[in-house]
Amino acid sequence: MNGAARDANDEDEPAPAPPTSLVDEPRPEERHNFLTLVFYNVLMRTGWIFKTESSIMPAVLDSFELLGTPKWALAWMRGALPLLNRFGQSVPPLMMARRIKIMPRKKWAFVATTSSMTLIFATLTAIWLVPGLIKPHTGLITWLIPLVYLVLYAAFFMAVGINQLTYNTIQGKLIRVTHRGRLLMVADSIGATSAVICALTLLPQWLRKDGADFQWIFGFSTLLFGISSLTAWVIREQPDSHEQPSQPLWKPFVIAWRTLREDGNFCRLGMVAALFSTSLVLFPHYQALAREQLHLGFDYLVWWVVAQNIGTGLFSILTGPLADRFGNRLSLRILTLLIAAAPQLALVFAQLPGVGHYTFWLVFFLVGMTPVAQKTFNNYTLEICQAADHPRYLSTLNLCMAAPIFLSPLVGGLIGLIGFHPVYHGITALLLAGALTSTTLQEPRERLKTIITPGDESL
């Protein structure tokens, strides 16, 4: 669309700029910031294993059956978890993208959101610390506690969404292009190792076949989130200056739509991201499938979260250096193809009780690639636009990833109506379509000259 054809109301937001230069010059205080972000990610990854969305968090909802909450209501709430998760990671970042862009120092938004995540999780932990609250009840409280849990869950992921937008904007500003894959590899591999050690040491004490001590599980996460919020204070960031006029609440959605419409390659990336994120709607149902058809207890959650974090660490070791050497496009192609195996493995293992008891962890091992893929999507996005456009492009990408998640309650209902098999087969088809679409993405490093400066191995 040329300038003459633009609507007058859209003149405050420029058209998508050409991709950022890949001149790979060191950034100010890069070594310090690299190590700080590694430490931050290790703490977050370790705390995150105790609130895994694919196992721990939906299992918490299932435990509310003790209160007297009907199973059908808990199943519906379990299906709503991906919706609340993705809404928080898409719409709030889109609304905050302009504010993050014009902040001279983005680190203060990073501090605020990480601290908010800590406070919300501390409140969630308090539910299990009130004497006599989590026990069989009748009346309003059987509904009230699960609903409070969902509200806190939604608020937490709203903070997470803005936090991730800020983190990726800071990363684009402070870490050069060909060191971002290294940051992913180092942070996720160390973080996954730390998480697995803590999980194997602590979770067996807090998870039992017939129940769990969620106050200790969530309390430990709160502690690590709190420490990670302190690391955000020590980031060294020079102020920048980006201007963008204020806008009405609906304008970010218009801008996101126009960004997709005017940047064909980014539009294809949005399609790949949307198709990939259909895998997320199945996350709460993997543990339900195993618990219902293989009759496994809460104690198996230990091995599932361990397998998931081992997967995260190994996939980051595989794709991080690959992305730095050959570009993020190749990593995306591999990850979008491999994730399609998870639903099919889950169905196979669920039909083989003698085998499934010992092999269902492989499903969660594949699920472990999801955070690696999301970071790779973000890193690819950082390469195809200029620094001033990073918040806009990243928030638009999050919106694309969120789009199919709004159907997650419907997916939960379909599983209850027609069973696991048809739904899992349908999701697999969508994931394969995403992998196929990823082959049409452009490689920005083929179009732009990268200059590797002497001493770039300093990190």
Task: Using brief descriptors, characterize the structure shown.
459 residues, disordered C terminus, 4 strands, Growth Hormone, Chain: A, 2% strand, two-stranded antiparallel ribbon, mainly alpha
Describe it for me?
The chain is built from 21 helices and four strands. The chain is mainly alpha-helical and 459 residues long. The protein has a single domain (22-453), classed as Growth Hormone, Chain: A. The strands form two sheets. A two-stranded parallel ribbon has the order 1-4. β2 (207-208) and β3 form a beta hairpin. α6 (141-174) runs antiparallel to α18, α10 crosses α18 (390-402) and α14 packs antiparallel against α16 (361-367). It is globular. Residues 1-23 and 448-459 have low confidence and may be disordered.
In which range does the helix fraction lie? 55-70%
What is the general shape? globular
The biggest sheet amounts to:
2 strands, parallel
Radius of gyration: 22 Å
Ends apart, CA distance between termini: 43 Å
Uncertain regions spanning at least 5 consecutive residues: 1-23, 448-459
Query: What is the topology, as strand order, of the major beta sheet?
Result: 1-4
Please outline the helices and strands.
Layout: E1 23-24, H1 30-48, H2 56-63, H3 71-88, H4 91-102, H5 107-126, H6 141-174, H7 180-206, E2 207-208, E3 211-212, H8 214-231, H9 251-262, H10 264-276, H11 283-293, H12 301-326, H13 328-338, H14 341-350, H15 353-359, H16 361-367, H17 369-383, H18 390-402, H19 408-418, H20 420-438, H21 444-447, E4 451-452
Helix pairs in contact: 1-7, 1-8, 3-6, 3-19, 4-6, 4-18, 5-6, 5-8, 6-18, 7-12, 7-17, 9-10, 9-18, 10-18, 10-20, 12-13, 12-16, 12-17, 13-17, 13-20, 14-16, 14-20, 17-18, 19-20
